[in-house]
């Protein structure tokens, strides 16, 4: 028996003598062939030392500047006896890392061990985030068993991912490990004398591999560091500490809730992991993300590449973090997020001139004087001579630093041009050719031009410089019109700096109050929202402005289309009338001839063709798709159309066209200017534009009221008064997104003030509801108001009623009495006769009375529902002052709430209506 056993022993053991063999333990295993068992059979899979993670801490900067690469050594294989197998589905084995003693090294980022109390007492002091030594701090680690590269977690799929097929266990990608160990070897072997470039080249493959390991999904949550079962008194972990938490069943997690405590909802403020997208509420974020050495990542996601779709948000701190960290700490975290190696763009997913970049090339590209803006993964072309840079098959979008040694040589078809004109070997696009022609560059005979970095150009093979592109007059304007780039030196840097300043100034202040703006369709909520942005200098970004411009131009074409459709109708009516008259007159008459001729609404053949085309595009629903090309191609036709008599005759009857919104006049009056390529929307244009804020979504803007300028007549302003620097968040929500019976209002439980917006002109307007019943819009507003006021979430909220479109009320009352609305039937003010010269003031006072009456109706309703006081303000949303006053009134209401005993009256209070002001 002993000799048989000995034959199984390793060679070194074969020398055991007969005496020693009794000191060796043996056990026998037999294959089980009985009936299936009902319990899980535990499996212990040995730890593979090659798969234990090590830190890859090579930063881009260190590659270039610091040649000694810090390395964290891999941990040694630990004793199996101290491991504990996590409980889980029997078919999966778990590799469990050592959590005691040296096993702590596994956690590359110590976890912040900050109690709320500590934070309160310690807040604001010291720059570095406080870090515990790891022992005795939070929870358990778990890693998913797969690395999902194409991983984009939508709000709805987040939970599915969380609870999906990933089983628990600690398993680190061997891929990542290999790359890391190569890095370590490299770092150990690399002496300080190696050149930067050599290092970049040697390590790039390793880094590429590590970056390839992709993103991952968290499958475990973390224990509460304060819960008693985490640490024993000596700071060592208790047995329970290494129990990996089971994923929570899908049904247990509410959509949009926190990934750790599973509380909250879609609207609860959360911070998301830039790797896996897991979102945590403010109570859990520190526990889930620790000290954030690589920025906002779950503890388990540290060391993993970020989700590329989140690259744009790197370094942009959230309001929640601002509340949780001191300024200094937050700046450090954001710096780490931007600069740590793991969060850098993986070079191999950026290709230039058909070749994926190496690390060295990417470093070069990103650190040049004028790098590509917001570089994302993708395929780009780069003209090294001129610095032109663009996406493959597209026209240039930027001019970056020239002569960078990145990518392959440029190819002729890089930008998919079809003009036979070449710049530095690339066939240019139509727009570029147009730009050259407009700038006065001779392009006859399809020249092959050589353009250098400073814009000087010459024909290939010729010595003489023909001119300098960027010195041409109007070149800035031409490029802007054709969406072509200009060198950064020519850009208006001041504007950008101002915008940045506004943003950073704002970011330093605290958000205190949330204002919820809600109202029925067309009540004016989005106009008030836009007005707030304009008033309080929240800039529309360049992209936003561009989109708004296309939106305005699209709307203009839509208005023209409605007019052209009306024109066809008017023309047809005219013909019918002629026919009728012709038939009614026996014998030959002049009508017979007129029928065959054009009438007052007819268009020329060219304009008729344009009209047919536009109506067809509108019918197909593709109007948006023709922009921005339409502005270039058809601006002259729009100009001709506006001068056309037939169109003018139609325009003069535009009030008959019900589909044409009132606001159309504003834009149609300036149609020629707006349809031009170089049109830039003014703030007023933006305000009037329909469709900028999505009708159904929730939009939010943060602002603070500017400090009032001091003048001799006012009381001195106390700039140290914190109220002056309070920040406000205006959240605009459309009722359609509140669900049946406004059930989603509970999402807004932390709102401080509800701004309920009603259009004063709704009293004689109707809409058809989902049941096909015609309803008065004012009654619809009343019903919505009732639903919101009586919603349990808003039981204690203050309300400010915004009675909007006051400017239109005056006009409307002349045509339709307020008593048209069944709710306002008792409004019969006695109006004394006024001579014509006092007529206007008379009408104004009628509008004022009507406004007061409506305000009081709502106040009484509010009182009957809540026994509280409703604040009311009259607003004309298109006027900045009016919205400013209303929002400042809102601020006052909040201040009163804070300092109840203090009676505060200022001029704004006159906007409020007391219940006693009855009709
Ligand atoms: N004259 C005038 N027009 C206004 C006023 N407020 C809003 N409007 C216009 O009324 C229309 C509807 O305003 P919006 O701000 O889009 O209304 P909304 O609440 O967003 O309504 P939806 O878009 O249906 O959600 C727009 O054409 C505005 O330009 C106002 O005080 N006076
Ligand atoms: Mg709107």
TrEMBL record:
<keyword id="KW-0342">GTP-binding</keyword>
<feature type="compositionally biased region" description="Polar residues">
    <location>
        <begin position="132"/>
        <end position="143"/>
    </location>
</feature>
<dbReference type="InterPro" id="IPR053057">
    <property type="entry name" value="XLG_GTP-binding"/>
</dbReference>
<feature type="binding site">
    <location>
        <begin position="804"/>
        <end position="807"/>
    </location>
    <ligand>
        <name>GTP</name>
    </ligand>
</feature>
<feature type="binding site">
    <location>
        <position position="526"/>
    </location>
    <ligand>
        <name>Mg(2+)</name>
    </ligand>
</feature>
<feature type="region of interest" description="Disordered">
    <location>
        <begin position="115"/>
        <end position="160"/>
    </location>
</feature>
<dbReference type="GO" id="GO:0007165">
    <property type="term" value="P:signal transduction"/>
</dbReference>
<dbReference type="GO" id="GO:0005525">
    <property type="term" value="F:GTP binding"/>
</dbReference>
<dbReference type="InterPro" id="IPR011025">
    <property type="entry name" value="GproteinA_insert"/>
</dbReference>
<protein>
    <submittedName>
        <fullName>Uncharacterized protein</fullName>
    </submittedName>
</protein>
<dbReference type="Pfam" id="PF00503">
    <property type="entry name" value="G-alpha"/>
</dbReference>
<keyword id="KW-0479">Metal-binding</keyword>
<feature type="binding site">
    <location>
        <position position="877"/>
    </location>
    <ligand>
        <name>GTP</name>
    </ligand>
</feature>
<feature type="compositionally biased region" description="Basic and acidic residues">
    <location>
        <begin position="145"/>
        <end position="154"/>
    </location>
</feature>
<dbReference type="InterPro" id="IPR027417">
    <property type="entry name" value="P-loop_NTPase"/>
</dbReference>
<keyword id="KW-0807">Transducer</keyword>
<dbReference type="GO" id="GO:0046872">
    <property type="term" value="F:metal ion binding"/>
</dbReference>
<feature type="binding site">
    <location>
        <position position="695"/>
    </location>
    <ligand>
        <name>Mg(2+)</name>
    </ligand>
</feature>
<keyword id="KW-0460">Magnesium</keyword>
<keyword id="KW-0547">Nucleotide-binding</keyword>
<dbReference type="InterPro" id="IPR001019">
    <property type="entry name" value="Gprotein_alpha_su"/>
</dbReference>
